[in-house]
Automatic annotation (TrEMBL):
InterPro entries: D-isomer_2-hydroxyacid_DH, D-isomer_2_OHA_DH_cat_dom, D-isomer_DH_CS, D-isomer_DH_CS1, D-isomer_DH_NAD-bd, NAD(P)-bd_dom_sf. This is D-glycerate dehydrogenase. One of its GO terms (molecular function) is NAD binding. It comes from Thermoflavimicrobium daqui. It holds the Pfam family 2-Hacid_dh.
């Protein structure tokens, strides 16, 4: 008999088919974030849960589901899950690394280029019929090629962003909890430095660190003040790594030139003041949103669950 797996919400068809081959699925919500009480009710007596970034699997929920044994997150970042609470209860937590690295790095570059070269601003001007023709001084943007990129967090995604910077002949500085081995620094052509040095020198500051209490508001008023007035902040990691109110102030006061944001502090809420600024490019958390990445994320979820039900260590275990 197939094992039961609770899914907080329906995934794309390919993933559902793959999951259905192996498990009996219980989908809590078709296309919305499920109501907490529904999730709780569906989890009673169940041992396996698949969730996404939009569901807060906190201590209260974990304690209210005594039979829960594995939480398989459909995503690489797992800050939506209280891992300490799962550890206390002996619950396994898995994620889906690697398969969304390139998609997220590509999205980072989409934001870098869009914000520096004013692509979205230009697009809306053209659509509104406000373009009066080419002019030597019209809509000048920031240069990308040959500039300095500062990468905060040099894990898989940070490294993939750095690789792409080679094609733009950029100088790449990075700040990370763990320094890369020197052969990798050489291969990627990246230079390690402290955060304040990176902020002072970079023309683009791109965030690729996981979110935790240690990285909460890592970029706040003080750090934004350290950036150049011509520099851009890019965030495809997690919204709360940046103090959003401080960022709005820095943008309004032209302490920095602009921002490309794929993530926000209180998603899906985006402050109106950010929406009103031309020097900001906003995306609705699309980092991993390519068809192939999402299919592969589903495959990894399946592999993690199969391993668990076979009594083996899931390949992408993040705790214990
Ligand atoms: C991730 O995988 O962390 C993406 O942000 C979606 O959750």
């Amino acid at each position: 008999m197939k094992k039961q797996v609770v899914l907080t919400r329906r995934l794309q068809d390919e993933c559902m088919k793959e999951l259905e081959k192996h498990f009996q699925l219980i989908v809590v919500s078709e296309d919305q974030v499920p109501k907490r009480e529904d999730l709780l009710a569906h989890l009673q007596g169940k041992e396996a849960l698949v969730c996404t970034v939009t569901e807060m699997i906190d201590q209260e929920l974990i304690e209210a589901c005594p039979d829960l044994r594995i939480i398989s997150n459909y995503g690489v970042g797992f800050n939506n899950i209280d891992v300490s609470a799962t550890n206390r209860r002996g619950i396994l937590v898995t994620n889906t690394p690697d398969v969304l690295t390139d998609a997220t790095a590509d999205m980072t570059w989409a934001l870098i280029l869009a914000v520096a070269r004013r692509v979205v601003e230009g697009d809306s001007l053209v659509r509104q019929g406000q373009w009066n023709g080419w002019s030597p001084t019209f809509m000048l943007g920031g240069d990308v090629t040959g500039k300095t990129l500062g990468i905060i967090g040099m894990g898989r995604i940070g490294q993939a962003v750095a690789k792409r910077a080679l094609g733009f002949q950029m100088k790449v500085l990075y700040y990370s909890r763990t320094r890369l081995p020197s052969h990798l620094e050489k291969e990627l052509n990246v230079v390690y430095c402290e955060l304040d040095q990176l902020l002072r020198q970079a023309d683009f500051v791109s965030i690729h660190t996981p979110y935790s209490s240690l990285t909460h508001h890592l970029i706040g008023e003080k750090q934004l003040m350290e950036m150049k007035p011509t520099a851009y902040l890019i965030n495809t990691a997690r919204g709360a790594v940046v103090d959003e109110l401080a960022l709005i102030k820095a943008l309004k006061e032209k302490q920095i030139a602009g921002a490309g944001l794929d993530v926000f502090e209180h998603e899906p809420y985006v402050p109106q003041s950010l929406c009103d600024m031309d020097q900001v490019v906003l995306a609705p958390h699309l980092g991993s949103a390519t068809r192939d990445s999402r299919i592969k994320m589903g495959e990894i979820v399946v592999q993690n669950l199969i391993a668990y039900f076979q009594g083996k260590k899931p390949p992408c275990l993040v705790n214990q």
